[in-house]
Design a protein that fits this description.
It is a single chain. By secondary structure, the chain is α/β, with parallel strands linked by helices. It has 2 domains: 158 residues, Rossmann fold, CATH 3.40.50; 113 residues, Glucose-6-phosphate isomerase like protein, domain 1 (Rossmann fold), CATH 3.40.50.10490. The protein is 37% helix and 14% strand. The protein contains 11 helices and 9 strands. The protein is globular. The N and C termini lie far apart (57 Å).
């Protein structure tokens, strides 16, 4: 009797597995990229679309909480032209996203701009004043995983190099080690079949929570939401119950575990099976894996999500 043919591994899953190495490579780029990155004290706006916007949110909170300077994050389409900034940083994997290109084209030429991108042969190279190319983190997948976290790893490592990380936030080397754990361990029990998941974060991890929820919606079509952790009791707890989960990226606020248990929800609180806390970026890697597993359990192809393309190009051509 022949053995069953193993299921093919999705391209998305392969790319997810490379994240620890990508983060280390990004950290090694910091000395060469430093001139293009925000300087201490600059007023900075960070922009992107979708996943890149959520990475912008995480970086903005890290930078400002670390005392590096005022930092705002915007969806590229919502950038407040006319507001004064010393630098604009744009995150765009494809380098072709219309809203990002339009923003850079309209930007006051006196404002320095930097783009982090995966593809050097794209229009963003001409529109941004400086670029940092993370081509080793580029992806074939429609759904972003490793490029997004690698861009954040570069920005976080730059803050680390200038002793500007907030208290309690570790360096990229430890985050990468935690990501290796996140790739090796079993997914939290009950999460693949959960009927609904609320992702929570606080400070810089709220952007990660936003991204976690988006990944599950994109890849698996799951019912997921995201909130600042302290806002969860102000309404969202109403949807939690048996068969539904709450996943906290970062430190769980006091008393919240009891509240979730009281309504019968499953709590995932940023640690592996040995209850050793994971770096929040590494915990996001677990969500990436969960998105693939949930997609496959639902009969979906995580490499070909419904209604999505790799880059949103409006009007038929970039910009």
């Amino acid at each position: 009797m022949s053995s069953p043919t193993p299921s093919p591994v999705s391209r998305t899953a392969v790319e997810i597995d490379t994240q620890p190495d990508c983060w280390r490579r990004a950290a090694a780029l910091v000395p060469a990229a430093a001139e293009a990155l925000p300087r201490r004290g600059e007023r900075v706006a960070v922009v992107g679309c979708g996943t890149s916007w959520f990475m912008a949110q995480a970086y903005a909170a890290l930078r400002e909480q670390g005392g590096h300077g005022l930092t705002d994050a915007f969806a590229a389409s919502e950038f407040p032209h006319g507001r004064s900034y010393d630098r604009v940083v744009a995150l765009t994997r494809s380098g072709t996203t219309t809203e990002v290109l339009d923003l850079l084209a309209r930007l006051d030429p006196s404002i320095p701009s930097t783009a982090l991108t995966a593809d050097p042969a794209t229009p963003v190279m001409k529109l941004a004043g400086a670029t940092v190319v993370l081509d080793f983190a580029d992806e074939e997948s429609v759904v972003q995983t490793r490029f997004a976290t690698t861009a954040l790893a570069l920005l976080r490592a730059h803050l680390e190099s200038e002793d500007a990380l907030p208290a309690g936030v570790g360096g990229i080397a430890s985050a990468a080690r935690d990501a290796e754990r996140a790739l090796a361990e079993e997914l939290p029990a009950g999460t693949v079949t959960a009927g609904q998941i609320s992702f929570l974060g606080a400070g810089w991890t709220y952007g990660l929570a936003q991204e976690a929820a988006l990944k599950m919606r994109e890849a698996a079509g799951s019912w997921t939401e995201s909130y600042p952790a302290m806002e969860y009791r102000h309404g969202p707890i109403a949807i939690t119950g048996p068969g539904r989960a709450v996943w906290m990226l970062g430190t769980l606020p006091a008393g919240l575990a009891d509240d979730i248990a009281r309504v019968g929800g499953l709590l995932v609180a940023g640690s592996g099976p040995e209850d050793v806390a994971l770096d929040p970026m590494a915990d996001l890697v677990r969500v990436h894996r969960l998105a693939v597993a949930a997609a496959e359990a639902a009969g979906r192809n995580p490499d070909r999500p419904l209604n999505l393309t790799r880059s949103v190009v409006l009007g038929g051509q970039p910009g």
